[in-house]
Amino acid sequence: MKEKREHTRLHYEAIVVGGGQAGLSVSYYLQKHGIDHMIFEKNRVGHSWRHDRWDSFCLVTPNWQCQLPDFPYQGDDPQGFMLKHEIVEYVEAFAKKVNPPIMVGVSVNRVWRGKNGVLHVVTSSGEFTADHVVVATGGYDIPIVPDYAHSLPPRIHQVHSVNYRNPDQLPEGEVLVVGSGQSGVQIMEDLHLAGRKVHLAVGSAPRSPRIYRGRETTEWLYDLGFYQLTIDRHPLGDEAKHKTNHYLTGRSGGHEIDLRKFALEGVKLYGSMANIHGTQLEFRPDLTKNLDEADEVYVNIRNDIDRYIADNNIDAPVEPPFRKVWEPEFDPTGIDADQENITSIVWAIGFRPDYRWIQLPVFDGRGYPQFDRGITPEAGLYFIGLPWLHTWGSGRFLGIADDAQYLAGIIEGKLAAKTMA
């Protein structure tokens, strides 16, 4: 890939903000349509995979789901789960194939509309204009750490999941991981396998089987049409965009995560975090509820697969019914960090987007962009690479190609109509 660092033009038919897998996919299809465009990437291709993940990070979806445009997974382990460095290599190889027009090390600081209707893009390398702007920056901008975290004494080390790398970076002592989404449970397991004493504040994230009735669950769900389910057909509607993903892991060949089993192995579980006063850590009395609801989703997925197997007369091994291997005696509501020898807290409660640089009225009360399949109410402004942009697969390697092809086609059509007008 030839990185273009100099520019001689100020106007493009399309500008793409972000040079990750989503932005590269859009560029791939824009090139196919012959649309003059430029990508602005503030870091370098693959930056977030390379620098914003812990050392043992791997995909939670199988490698066969890596289906970037005309660039499916090339390796010899389609049922495996790529490690961090392999993901970087995959994205970089895709970038080489696409060979996009791109300026790296260029941040976009402002997008606004001029009086003539043209979109203005102010960057660290100057100001440009475009007929169309595609935002491909993702929604993981600002790590979430609650305000009450400032109450902790300085001797208790705090780190957000985006900055966690491995157990050795944390001081000796026990560790509290706050959050049971995909990052939280995987970091908890990373610490537990390293022999660290771990505490986990369990939130409302659902969980999923890994292998069920002789087959990878994601393969069953793909056949059932879950990945093709569109947001307009989802029972929760737009609210699905804000739901936490199911937790499981691709570590060591992939396996499901049952927090009850970890409790039997010594991990101490609490409900969701409520507050902190000095060394006093407070939790909501919802541990039993959160474990039960995660298991309910887990069992429902199994039931969906059972019905599909029965309806299609598929020969598949039968598995015993799910049973709980551990139950909390009560829902703990507070502990003292010093008494528990907790010397570190890992915050794994997610991120919030930061779109303040987009000065156009396309955001809801939570600062989330409003769109229909990535197309906003503001003419010429689009989003891609976000969960439930169109389908369950939209925020994954599996669904980006369809979304990118669709948006590039929309842009091509609008440019053609403008030319004919």
From TrEMBL:
Keywords: Oxidoreductase. Pfam families: Pyr_redox_3. Signal peptide: none annotated. It comes from the Bacteria. The keyword Oxidoreductase applies. This is MSMEG_0569 family flavin-dependent oxidoreductase. The lineage of its organism: Bacteria, Pseudomonadati, Pseudomonadota, Gammaproteobacteria, Methylococcales.
